[in-house]
Amino acid sequence: AIDLLGAALVAVGNDSGLMHAAAAVDTHIVAIYGSTLPSFAPPLTDAKDVFFLGMGCSPCFQRYCPLGHLRCLRDISVGSVCSAVVTALGSVGYKASLDG
Predict the structure, then answer these.
(1) Coiled-coil segments, which residues (predicted)?
(2) How far does CA 73 lie from the centroid of its chain?
(3) What fold is seen in the domain 2-91?
(4) How far apart (Å, rounded) are the C-alpha atoms in residues 52 and 40?
(5) What own/partner pairs with CB < 8 Å and gap ≥ 24 does 47-54 have?
(6) Where are the domains positioned within the chain?
(7) Which of 15, 28, 59, 64 could disulfide-link 88, Cβ–Cβ 3.0 to 4.6 Å?
(8) Per-residue pLDDT tens for 5-47?
(9) pTM greater than 0.85 (yes/no)
């Protein structure tokens, strides 16, 4: 898995070991935080985009949403994450577009 992450131009993931492994091999990270805090366990790289809504109920550090709505993750727009990926790809000279 680490070899694949090292070959990738960008990695999208949640606060997980693989996200931190991608940072360790200098792959650009698009990190999505819901129930955890980016300041608690940030990707240790400058090549990152972090998505965190900072809702009133977070961080709860729970695997399942105790309120049953999971808005801390669901309200992060797919479009904003995709835009971050396209921008990151452009920063390494790869031509990408959201237009298809």
Answers:
(1) none
(2) 11
(3) Rossmann fold (3.40.50)
(4) 12
(5) 47/23, 47/88, 48/23, 49/84, 49/87, 49/88, 51/76, 51/80, 51/81, 51/84
(6) 2-91
(7) 28
(8) 999 999 999 999 999 999 999 999 999 999 999 999 899 999 9
(9) yes
Please identify which residue in the block is written with the tokens 């997980």: 16
DSSP per residue over 40-83, as a string? TS--SSSSEEEE----TT-----SS-TTS--HHHHTS-HHHHHH
**CB atoms near residue 11 (< 10 Å):** 23
Instruction: Give me the phi and psi of 48, to 5 degrees please.
Output: -150, 155
59: left (phi over 0), alpha (psi -120 to 50) or beta: beta
CA 51: distance to chain centroid? 6
Is the pLDDT score of 64 beyond 80?
Answer: yes
Both tokens of 50, joined, read 């972090």
Peptide bond before residue 66 is cis, with ω within 30 degrees of 0? no
